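LAB NOTEBOOK - FOLDING QUEUE
OPERATOR: T.R.
BATCH SIZE: 2
PURPOSE: Compare the predicted structure-token outputs for two unrelated chains run back to back under identical settings.
PRIORITY: normal
REVIEWER: second-year student, initials M.K.

ITEM 1
FIELD SEQUENCE / FIELD STRUCTURE:
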Amino acid sequence: MSAAISPKLLDLYVIGGGINGTGIANDAAGRGLEVGLCEQADLASATSSASSKLIHGGLRYLEHHQFRLVREALREREVLLRKAPHIVWPLRFILPHQPHLRPAWMIRTGLFLYDHLGKRDSLPGSRRLRLDTTSPLKPEITQGFEYSDCWVDDARLVLLNALQAQQQGAEILVRTRCIEAREENGHWIITLENRDTGHRQIRRAKVLVNATGPWVERFIRGQTQRESRYGIRMIQGSHLIVPRLNTDERAYILQNRDGRIVFVLPYQQDFSLIGTTDRRHTGDPDKVAASDEEADYLLEVVNTHFQQQLKRDDIVATFSGVRPLCDDESADPSAMTRDYTLDLDAQSAPLLSVFGGKITTYRKLAEAALAQLHDRLPEMGVPWTATRPLPGGDIGNQHDFATRLVRDYPFLGEARARRYAASYGSLCLTFLEGCRKAEDMGKDFGAGLTQAEVDYLTDHEWAREADDVLWRRTKLGLRLDQAQQQHLAAHIAAHRQVMAA
């Protein structure tokens, strides 16, 4: 099949639409570079939407002496709170203390370091707790500690970086895979294939960035015909979603006897998110799912701590992802570094490959990547992402913006106004424009999801299928029944046909 050739020589082409790929593309586009990005599936469809939804320094990383990573992550926590108040917000954590596990002095020392390693402008510090009969934990757990971290809507963080990159001139292609990248006269000739239509096209670029996550080694050897200088170890992390375990808005970090920790996080008002596991994954990164063994492990940890006892039947949903960690030959998956490694293969056509990383430090990873490429792309501008809000983030705070939405669009109701504020920020004003009553928003698919919102997501945020809307852009897959989901899928297909005509 012949491929259409793009005559323009781009500065940078990014393969991979997860948090690292979109973060690099966004930073580069904002520095005035000509940028393209392709993602073989949906944006954030793999590792980047299967996280524990936290912007955090990584309290447990202190035990493995990863002080640089923790310091950088703590500083980024403050940056992201300012950049994206619609999708990032403070979360208080309770760490129950049981003397037969980590001793109190060790926890106090760790929390002291956690409070002071990075700059902390807005988040309260840690404190010791005495737990009483109002606690959802078992009565014998009477002591604990409380500290601060942050929640993030991980998939929307990816989407907003892609959207901002596009606003600054980047081309973003979804469901488009790179089938070959070859060198020609010191540049890259990149062959792309649309996975829905089979249509092929070519892009030309000075530099190629491999941000394919779990596929990073496979891409180097397969598509570029080069050798990978680093290895990865794929670590599977699985999560459970269950009915809400606690009535307040605090999270729990549970210490297990094997030394691992498990989070119990408030999720979508009515649910708790439990995770994560750490187990070696040796199969296809596309085929990852929570095993019965992982589910039993997480339920056992929770049942050891909480008064409410969970069974398999209580599991509402599960999700799993593969974390592509740079292989440091550690025997313990929990001890493997979450830091990132950038490998620049500076042959005639430069290839920059991203190994590892964590969602909290994606912005610093992008800055480090562009610093490595500066000699090859000397025309790039200066770093800029630390201070500019992500799209929709110009709202002040969620509470005030939700109050404004209820005032200006009373037909929304408080629950939907809060969801819009915590997902879109000011972006929701795009699809609310001209709406004065509920009927103006078109079809109602259930759980407050309407045609106006869905059409916005397909027209402006690359949603192509019902799952893109339900699980990555809104999380309403937890609330719509099968018939409602089929109705949504039919509408999306029809709407896309109309728009393509």
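ITEM 2
FIELD SEQUENCE / FIELD STRUCTURE:
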Amino acid sequence: MSKVYILVAEDDADDRFLLETAFAEKGYGEKLTFVENGVELLDYLRNIKYDEKTNQHNLPGFILLDLNMPKKDGREVLKEIKEDPRFKKIPVIVFTTTKNEKEINRCYELGANTYVVKPVGFESLLQTIEDIRSYWFKTAQIP
């Protein structure tokens, strides 16, 4: 079985560092793979190679997706991921600072699996990451 990894689309270097630090502090084994915008995210997914040993593509366990990124924002990327038969089953967790009800509804309409507002403090980030991992790796059944 391929090693589980998490694909993170985040343009802010400080937020990337905080996520890396949170995962390291908790001792999680998943590799974090970072892309900085929507174009890079889609390019990354389209370039995933087929694994002959497992007879499948090594897709991420889930995607943490920021909405407000350059080149192609999270909304556009979310729509493209969920319309593509190769990628639509990958859980996409919108992970953003935007907490507008219209925006939340729009993301769910576009196919988001979960919408999480980024926590403010580091301790809150640790708990949020624990909750997300616990749900997507232990609780949820993913085809």
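REVIEWER COMMENT (ITEM 2): The chain has one domain: 5-134.
FOLLOW-UP: none requested
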